[in-house]
Specification:
With 170 residues, the chain is of the alpha+beta class. It has one domain: Nuclear Transport Factor 2, Chain: A. It contains 4 helices and 6 strands, in the order H-H-E-E-H-E-E-E-E-H. Helix 1 packs antiparallel against helix 2. It is elongated, with a radius of gyration of 22 Å. The mean pLDDT is 83.
Length: 170
């Protein structure tokens, strides 16, 4: 009986050690996935800032859904997102994200990294009317196994940006 009890305690300890190793490996795998996905988001931002619609399209899944910063503007198609980008390109001349920060998103239940990306940046640009704009931006991106963006939810001071667009040329 003593040996059986001792064997059960040892088995429990070994089981705990194995569970910790599995949890640690899963978290590390998700952080590696986050690192890969952050590169996808950076590539998308670079393509967008270079006004390269074809390159932007390469970063988007065909089934992408985007919740844009404009009130009620939810893009449910890749074509709509790309058309919106072309409008942006017609108004802005030198878009740049300064000092972007990429952080891992977490699963809302486990609070562990899930491999997706939360991006923060400070956008600067010059409008076609010569007005300079400067605003903070935040985007949450979900990336699929093909390294394509399948979901984006973006936030920025759209009202301030619209005020700058409507400001007379300086």
């Amino acid at each position: 009986m003593k040996y059986l009890f001792l064997l059960m305690i040892i088995a429990s300890l070994i089981s705990c050690i194995n569970n910790e190793t599995i949890k640690e490996t899963t978290t590390n795998d998700k952080m590696e996935l986050f690192t890969e996905n952050a590169k996808v988001v950076q590539g998308y931002i670079d393509a967008f800032c270079n006004e390269d619609s074809a390159a932007v399209a390469e970063f988007l899944a065909d089934t992408v859904k985007r919740i844009a910063p404009g009130y009620g503007d939810t893009s449910t198609s890749k074509a709509y997102w790309l058309a919106s980008a072309k409008v942006f390109y017609s108004v802005f001349d030198h878009a740049k994200v300064n000092n972007p920060i990429y952080l891992p998103t977490v699963d809302p239940i486990t609070m562990k990294p899930d491999g997706n990306v939360s991006a923060y940046g400070h956008w600067t640009d010059e409008l076609s009317n010569g007005v300079k704009v400067d605003f903070k931006w935040h985007g949450v991106f979900k990336i699929n196994s093909d390294h394509k963006i399948v979901y984006a939810d973006e936030y920025l001071d759209l009202g301030g940006m619209l005020n700058a667009i409507n400001e007379p040329t300086r």
